[in-house]
Structure formats: C-alpha cells, structure tokens
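Hey all, quick one. A colleague (J.T.) asked me to put the NAP job into the tracker so the inputs and the structure tokens live in one place instead of scattered across chat threads. No bug as far as I know, just bookkeeping. Sequence used:
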Amino acid sequence: MSAADDKPEHDLGSLLSLEGKTAVVTGGSGGIGSVTVEHLLMAGAEVYCIDLEGKSAPGSAIFKACDFSDPEQIANTMEEIHDEVGGFDILVHCAGITRDRVLWKMSDEDWDAVLEVNLDSAFFLLRAAIPFFRERGDGRVVLISSINGERGKLGQANYAASKAGLIALGKTAARELGRFGVRVNCISPGLIRTRMVAELPEEVLEKARQEIVLGKEGDPKDVAHAVLFLCSDMSAHITGQVLRVDGGQWMA
Ligand code: NAP
C-alpha cells in the first residue's frame, strides 16, 4: 500500500499537502531554491533553507548557514536540524555553481569547486539524512540536476559531470532506499530565468532560447511545481526518475 492509498482520490489538495512534514532545501536563497522554499511552505511543510552565510530565508522558513564545499559543515548542519526538530522527511538539493571554461583551460580548482558543491555535497547530505528517513519510515529526495548533465555542454565539463553524477547517485539511492519507503528523483531543468543564467553572454542565451520548443526560458516556479509534485503523495509510486523541466529544450 502506498502513502497515497490513505487519502481520498478526489481530494487533490490533500494529495499535494505537506502538512506535518519537515523539508530541507539547499541553495534555498537562490533563484530556483527560494521559489521552491515558498512552494513547500504553501503546501504546509516546515522548511529549513540552507545557503551561504549572509543570505536569508524566504517567508517563514528557518535559515541555516552552511558552505556545501565543507563536509564537516554539512554534517553539523544536519545534526543541528535533527536536534531541533527530530529529523526531516524531505530533502531538495538545489545548491549549485558553475565555473565555465573549455577543458583545456579548466584548472584543477575549477573542476574541484564545481564537483564539491554540486555533487560531493549531495553524497554527504544523503548519507547524513538516511538515518533520519529510516527513523520516520518516509523520505522524499529531489536532486536538481540539469539537461547539460544528460547531453554534455561546451565549456561545462565540470558542471555537466557533476550533474550527470547526481543522476547516477539519485538512481542508486532510489534502489538502495526504496525498501525503507524513501523515494529519490532528479529534476533536469533547461534554461531557467535566474541570476545563474543572467551572467551568461547574450549569444549563448539566444542559442539556448532557440532550442526551447515552447519558445521561452522557464521560470523558477516551473521547477518548484515539479519539486512539489515529486515531494508530495501525488508521486507516491515514482522513484529513480529524471523529470525534465525544460520546455522541450532537450528530447532524447
Ligand atoms: P542560483 O540562484 O545561483 O542558486 C544557487 C544557490 O546555491 C545560491 O543561493 C548560491 O549562493 C548557493 N550556493 C553556491 N555555492 C554554495 C555553497 N558552497 N554552499 C552553499 N550554497 C551555495 O542558481 P539557480 O539558477 O537558482 O540554480 C539552482 C540549481 O538549479 C543549481 O543546482 C543549478 O545548477 C540548477 N540548474 C539551473 C538552471 C538555470 O537555468 N538556472 C538550469 C539547470 C540547472 P550564491 O548566490 O552566493 O552563489
């Protein structure tokens, strides 16, 4: 019996409700992260927004500073949340950075920085969260990957490798954790209007826009809606999947 079986079929609101759940959103002050935090709050969850020192949390979310390039800070932050609220049910890993350069100009530092923040942190977060999920017999994890992790992208060897790694990590975690009632899925956004893409040269943006069959870049809320779906009982029988939110930018 899945969690959704407990709820009346006609009650869509209750299927989407996250009342009584606690969510942790990494990169929760960023473009996609902050809108995701707002949506999880709207669905009734208590939300921890984790981001770099000096940022803040949207709405009534609780802010915690953590640098995701530091495994010790990640472990301490997870412990703090456990001590405060006895664990959590939902983990959305949104923190991410780019350091774009063609391979032959990419430094060791460019490579390491991106792999650490985007991928290594996801491993540390998941490993720390698993005991909490097992304790609750429930867990919903969404890792924010990228279509460039699926198709590769000029100038983004580090970023694309980190995002492909998230997909492999997510599928493996889904296989290992299904028996404990934990679902793990990835979202692959295409071009989404945030500060991360605002920094790209106009010709790169225009080329990306031309790839999008719906004719325009996505909005952060397009990703937040998909996160909400994957964290709710609407997706009770979905795990180990990659959901593209890209207006048809990449179809393969
Ligand atoms: P964003 O606004 O830059 O959000 C990323 C957040 O992560 C920011 O708040 C950022 O802080 C934070 N962060 C960076 N380094 C960190 C660290 N070491 N420790 C903790 N937090 C850190 O970017 P976004 O566009 O919303 O992207 C969110 C996620 O979606 C990322 O994983 C990105 O790769 C993915 N994505 C985005 C797009 C897109 O088109 N926008 C497409 C595909 C995938 P700072 O602002 O201080 O750096």
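Adding what we noticed when we looked at it: The longest strand covers residues 182-189. Strands lie at 22-26, 46-51, 62-65, 90-93, 139-144, 182-189, 242-245.
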